[in-house]
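REQUEST ID: PR-0412
SUBMITTED BY: lab tech R.K.
PRIORITY: routine
TASK: structure prediction, single protein chain
INPUT:
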Amino acid sequence: MPVAKNKAFKINQGGLGSLLNRIQTLFVGMLRIWSIPIVLMLSIASGFTTYYGLSHFIVPWIALIITIAIQSIIVICSLEIAGIHWKANRLRFLSVLLSLSVAIMASITFSYFKFYEVSQSESMRISRINDMRKAGNDYLDAILIIKGDILRELNTELEKSNNDVSQAYFGTHSQLPPAYKNIVGQGAFWRHYNERYQIKKAHFDQMDKEFHHLDEHIRNLQTSLNQLTVDAEKNIQNAIIGMQEVQLQFNKIATHTGRKVPQAPILMTYDQFSQGVTPSFAMWTDFSLFAFACAAMVDFFTFLLSYRLETTAPGPLTEQEQELVFECLRQFSEFRINENDELEMVIEKSDIERARRYSDWSRMFAVGFLLSRGFLRKIDERSVEFAPNLYPLIAEKMGDKLRQIKAESLPAEQADLSRVPHE
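STATUS: complete
OUTPUT:
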């Protein structure tokens, strides 16, 4: 009875481990399969941004062809460079690396324009609002300074004229003849200065009234400029109208006083305000690290996933191919674990094999076959390493061999037991 329990426990334990192993294998396989559409989607996304930037410099259909070529080179070179070792073929490795670098640099450069536009759209909007406000406020500051000078000048003249009237009334004016000195009263001399005073006062009142109208237009313009972030389309139109009214009113005043009129700014229309950015290499002068990081991130993920896809062979091996490969690889004798934590084997003949003139055609055929299928990677001229997808095949074949050996040894053990005499 205890033996039956132990056997049942072992079966259940083995069944649970086998189930977990199958689930893990299925999950890893699904991830590898899912990597393919992800790479394609990343290539399409990167291609769209690359085409967007490139189409602003050359004809669109040529930009499309170049974009397809760039993305294809990135994926193909990423897959190829994953299976190349520096020591195996330096020239090929450098050529693939150079092609990959040029393609990624071109993709990032032209993708940067799109990400720059997206990431800087709000800051450009704020910058345009600030530019409009600055232009408007600078103009208002200039006319307010001139307004203050005009008012001070008019006020000074009015006060001087008022003093002349007072001095003429009390007979203390410097222009009075000696006969009229210190005579108080409203004489002819007083009436002359009083008339001049009334004219200047009327002019001062008129200018003050016009300045009040100008102040009203200035307040309306400042209100429109301050509310550009609320309703841009409406307030930009109001700001343009307000700027024209301020300019006309102030030019009228300045003309009467003989003042130099400052140049009024030309505010952008709403269409100009809402216009997007036209990609140009001038964007690199105002470098955006965030836009560059986004452009580089897409191509980096494309390269990384394409690189990882190389660990999966282009297609499975048939039963006959698996048997052939297993038998041929068993003929090699020099194996070690290399710095990549992979099983490495020497494919050259040993000294004894050279002395015996051993023909290694079959096993070299297996090596070439596995290299072309992605199950082996060349390290240098004399050694190769196992790709991760080769281990399960070898493990399966080794398991089959062990089961075959056990099956063959079981009848022999039973025969030996049958010969043992019973007590």
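NOTES: Confidence is low (pLDDT under 50) at residues 1-14.
REVIEWED BY: pending
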